[in-house]
Amino acid sequence: MTSTTIDSPRTPAGSAKRRGVNWEKWGWIYMRVSGVVLLVLIFGHLFVNLMVGEGVKAIDFAFVGGKWSDPFWKVWDTLMLWLAMIHGGNGMRTIVNDYARSPRLRKVLVGAIAASVVVLILLGTLVVFTFDPCPVVPADQAHLLPSFCPAP
Ligand code: HEM
């Protein structure tokens, strides 16, 4: 009969010291730190959009245009986008690591998560910094512009 010895919970993973950056540890710390910052960003975002002034009734194209004309909200929204996407992506990676049974499936799923995080961060950042509520358009399309834009 064989017996198994189980190390005490706080025993280091290997007897030999591992080299290089411990990415899992930094990922773990990132989830906690970004979670705290996201609490402020997300609840600040919800409070300003849904409760201040006229509240939810005020949300329309002009409301978004107005917010994104202010560098403060551009930085706020970009930070929220980056932190939440990386937090959500890393959290999904953890779930895939826990449940995917084959290494190949794990690679495919983690690759798909990483790709969608990168694409959404790039697209979102592009929108926040290039958004122009009154773009220059040909005269026959001027009727498509919001009413607050100066006449072309
Ligand atoms: C309101 C602010 C938030 C806080 C305080 C927060 C906090 C946390 C913490 C501490 C963990 C690690 C849990 C663990 O390791 O057991 C976690 C995991 C996770 N978070 Fe968040 N989070 C927040 C917002 C978000 C958002 C906006 C998303 C989506 C974009 C998200 C998606 C996830 C996912 C998918 C996991 C992995 C769940 C798991 O391991 O079972 N979280 N969160």
Give a brief description.
By secondary structure, this protein is mainly α. 61% of the residues lie in helices and 0% in strands. It has one domain: Up-down Bundle (3 helical TM bundles of succinate and fumarate reductases).
Provide a descriptive summary of the structure in words.
InterPro entries: SQR/QFR_C/D, Succ_DH_anchor, SuccDH_FuR_B_TM-su. It comes from Labedella endophytica. Pathway: Carbohydrate metabolism; tricarboxylic acid cycle. The protein is mostly helical and 152 residues long. The protein has one domain (27-133): 3 helical TM bundles of succinate and fumarate reductases. It contains four helices and no strands. It has helices at 23-50, 61-67, 71-99, 103-130. Helix 1 (23-50) packs across helix 3 and helix 3 packs antiparallel against helix 4 (103-130). The protein is elongated, with a radius of gyration of 23 Å. It starts with 22 loop residues before the first helix and ends in a 22-residue tail after the last helix. The model has no long low-confidence stretch (mean pLDDT 92). It binds protoporphyrin IX containing FE. Residues 31-32, 35, 38-39, 42, 84, 87-88, 91-92, 94-95 line the site of protoporphyrin IX containing FE.
